[in-house]
Amino acid sequence: MSNGLKEVAAWTGEENLSDLLHHHYGIRLKGAEPVRGVLKLQTDEGPFVLKRVRSGEKDRWKWVAELARHVEMSGCEEIRIPQPLFTASGRLYFHGYRFPYVLLPWLEGKPLSFNRADDWRRASRALARFHQSTVGFKPGSSGRRYDCTGKWLAEWEHVCQQLDIFRLAAKWTPNPTEADQSWLQTASYISGLMENLLEYYQKIDGDEPCQKSIPSGKCCHNRLHRHNLLADDEGWIQFVDWNQAVLDIRLRDLAQWLTYAYGRTGSQQILTDVLKSYQEVAPLEEGEYSLLYARMLFPEKLFHLLRRVYQKQDISIHSAAPDIQKAVQTEEKKAGLLRGYTAAVKEEFHITIPKLDWLH
């Protein structure tokens, strides 16, 4: 085994990866290097991405492949979703010694710094183009388990129950850790926030604007941050890392993007830039602004982290304290985010939306 292939084996734990790739795809592995959290493969057929398929992701990759074909056929030449390659046996993944894997074409591009307002504007227009390109998409049966459309209220009610269980787990453990203490310090605040969120959603009759939003796109990338956006050779912004994509209305992505933008900049002007740039491509309906407010209220990042610590236990509770504290800080910034958002919507679009007075 060459030195390069030895490194691949060390990174993946797959000593026979070269043989597996040749067997399943008919390609010869020449070398590899870790790039932005994935493994870039150099082969006799050009560069590819090798990505581990985690538990429960096999069906997701099936409908992502369907989505990639739909976007390609939509006529939107600016957006390209890397399509997983089929193996010789017609599957979208293959089993290694340690894990199953999916093989994707390598997408050449440069990361954006997001130190300039223009980067936020370009990315927001690209997000709108992606959502537009998904209009009319109808996934096969593989996509049903990832369909979150119209299920926000039920999801949030379940989250309230889960958060209470996590609070009790931290409270009654005989040997509390720093992570337990960090969570307990904010648990009451987060529980109160969730109660207010449920009341707010019902106040705005959130199901109605949700249904009206469906024709504007029903697929979300669901993992929007600067490491998953690249500027390709033609200058178009492309999205990578689709293994958390879901079927949902576009506001899920847009709320996540606004939250990320404010978290990075603390700027109301950036919120305005994001909203304006997105709507240069895909205008919002008036009722969608209140639904965006509700989605940004949801402590999504903190909840998923707590679930990994207390339920899935794939993050050690003995090392989770810094991550919990960081997620809590994100929630503490929500007041500024929501104040900035409501002000931007009123000043720029002349729309006044209901708000939680205690956050303003």
From TrEMBL:
InterPro entries in alphabetical order: Aminoglycoside_PTrfase, CotS-like, Kinase-like_dom_sf
Gene Ontology cellular component annotations, sorted alphabetically: endospore-forming forespore
Signal peptide: none
Domain Aminoglycoside phosphotransferase, first and last residues per copy: 40-279
Highest taxon of source: Bacteria
The keyword Transit peptide belongs to this UniProt entry's keyword annotation: no
Annotated keywords: Capsid protein, Virion
Coiled-coil zones: none
Sequence intervals crossing the membrane: none
Statement: the UniProt record of this protein carries the keyword Cytoplasm: no
Xref: SUPFAM superfamilies: Protein kinase-like (PK-like)
Name of the protein in its database record: Spore coat protein, CotS family
Organism: Lihuaxuella thermophila
